[in-house]
Design goal:
Blueprint (H helix, E strand, L loop, with lengths): L4 H14 L2 H8 L31 E2 L5 E6 L11 E10 L5 E11 L5 H7 L7 E6 L19 E11 L1 H7 L15
Length: 187
């Protein structure tokens, strides 16, 4: 079936003919927001956010089986085993998306966390953000801990704010990561 150029031109102008110029003027004016009524419902505690399924998946795999997706790549040096890091992170269960832990400006040693998290830290340069899909074998394995069931696959979103090589931290006599903000860690 062939459509003539005249028919195409007519089809292209139909939406213009249907539009009312007065309606176009009204849509350009700012509409004041509607007032919001106070909501008296009680928020159930603890507040347990659920991460959507698409944000529980990773695109790449390391030879160890760690999944990862680089959300915000960054260039530069990366921490190594034994280094001290300062990170923002959120951890959630891969199966359900239930958030079990989160931290802002958390001081974590690369060797002081579960193996998959430590390996994932070594993928990041300062300013980078990664999603880590940690299989149970690189997490807590058959051991249940707190809100994390046994044999649970985990997902973390991690932002590397800063890091300090182990030798530099030892020379400075530091026991914490840069900025010294201690917080619970995904160990």
């Amino acid at each position: 079936m062939t459509i003539s150029p005249a028919t195409l031109a007519l089809l292209a102008t139909l939406p213009l003919l249907a539009a009312n110029p007065a309606d176009a003027q009204k849509s350009r004016r700012a509409v004041p927001p509607r007032p919001v009524a106070a909501d008296t419902r009680i928020i159930p505690l603890p507040l347990n956010p659920i991460v959507p399924a698409g944000q529980r998946l990773c695109a790449m795999r390391t030879p160890s089986g760690l999944g990862y997706t680089m959300l915000r790549p960054a260039a530069g040096a990366k921490p190594g085993a034994g280094d001290l890091t300062l990170v923002n992170y959120v951890g959630y269960l891969a199966a359900t998306g239930v958030v079990f832990d989160q931290g802002m400006r958390s001081a974590l040693g690369v060797d002081g966390v579960i193996p998959g998290f430590g390996e994932g830290l070594q993928l990041l340069a300062k300013g980078g953000v990664v999603r880590l899909c940690i299989p149970a074998a690189l997490g807590y394995g058959a051991r249940a801990t707190g809100p994390i069931p046994a044999n649970a696959d985990l997902v973390f979103q991690v932002e590397l704010i800063d890091y300090r090589p182990e030798a530099a931290a030892a020379a400075a006599g530091e026991a914490e990561a840069p900025a010294g903000d201690a917080a619970p860690s995904p160990q």
